[in-house]
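A protein record pairs a chain with a discrete description of its three-dimensional fold. The shape at a given residue is found from the number at the same position. Here is what such a record looks like in full:
>
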Amino acid sequence: MRSTLRKPIVVFFLAVFVLSAIFFLIPINLFDGEMVFEGIAEPVQAKLSLSYFIGIGASKEETAGVLDFYLLPMGYFLAFLMLIALPVLIAYRVHVANQQQK
């Protein structure tokens, strides 16, 4: 088992899984987005959680009057950094540590 966890590809997928579980299952309002409300012509900028996109974490009181919500480009960028780039850096660190041990 120890040698399996030293493989960078395994570490990458494990990190992606753990971070995705955290961001999609726990409502952490971290990502820049906009919400479209009934009766308001312009969208309102807000911090959104990725869990809202799968229907977890937003109560009916919080979403009352919300027609739509979406991420802004900076929100997509932050999601990419957290879900892909951070696991790549962790896996690269494992790769470098393996190279130093050889």
About this structure: The CA atoms of residues 31 and 77 lie 9 Å apart. The chain has one domain: 4-101.
